[in-house]
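I would like you to sit down with the record closing this message with an eye to the fold:
=====
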Amino acid sequence: MTNVNQHTDTQLIHIDTLVRDRIATIAVRDGSPERHPYPRDAAPDEEGGRGLFLMRELAYAWGVTWENGLRPTGKHIWFELRDPVHE
């Protein structure tokens, strides 16, 4: 949410959540196709710049899905969390 707020001009942000079979999928959707989000290496003294890095490290899977194909009108940044299998 903070990244959308800081890096886009979109006025409307959606959060979609799906939980099923011990898997949670969370997507933040905005109406800004201009910027492609990517994890970066933040300097040790920076207050920000670690959100996508943390998502990449902690999530089972994550990605970006563009709305409307070759002429995108927005994007979904999503991640999936899975409950560890207990044996």
About this structure: Residues 11 and 31 are 8 Å apart (CA to CA). The chain has a mean pLDDT of 86.
